């Protein structure tokens, strides 16, 4: 069974659904099973949290410095400025994530509108 083994219109969607489920759910179940047994301040959980944070930071950095699609047509200064303003708003709002996201998006959209 492969991605190209069936010509039905629904096959790619089914294949992606099953492949995505198999690749992620086993790890989710293992995380739930082991999560109750690990202390919040354990070294392993601190490491996992640090890796997850680094991955998110890498994705954000990649979107800012090497964008694709419509974002690639925006000036780098606008993308960096929106990220910096969003980060500042996040800290000013006592680490409220939604505030940082809204401010960064508002500045990005205002900059795009002004161009």
Features:
single chain, 115 residues, mainly alpha, transmembrane helix, transmembrane, Brnchd-chn_aa_trnsp_AzlD, membrane
The helical percent reads over 70%
% residues in beta strands = under 5%
Q: Give the mean pLDDT.
A: 89
Distance between the termini: 49 Å
> Mind describing the biggest β-sheet?
none
Low-confidence stretches: none
Structural class call reads mainly alpha
Broad shape:
flat
Encode the helix/strand succession as letters: HHHH
What gyration radius follows from the Cα positions, in whole Å?
Answer: 20 Å
Number of domains: 2
- How many β strands by DSSP? 0
What is the count of helical runs?
A: 4
Pfam families: AzlD
Transmembrane segments: 12-34, 46-66, 72-90, 97-114
Keywords: Membrane, Transmembrane, Transmembrane helix
InterPro entries: Brnchd-chn_aa_trnsp_AzlD
Structure description:
With 115 residues, the chain is an all-alpha fold. It has 2 domains: 1-37, no CATH class; 41-114, no CATH class. Helix content is 72%, strand content 0%. The protein contains 4 helices and no strands. The chain has helices at 11-35, 43-65, 76-92, 97-114. It is flat. The model has no long low-confidence stretch (mean pLDDT 89).
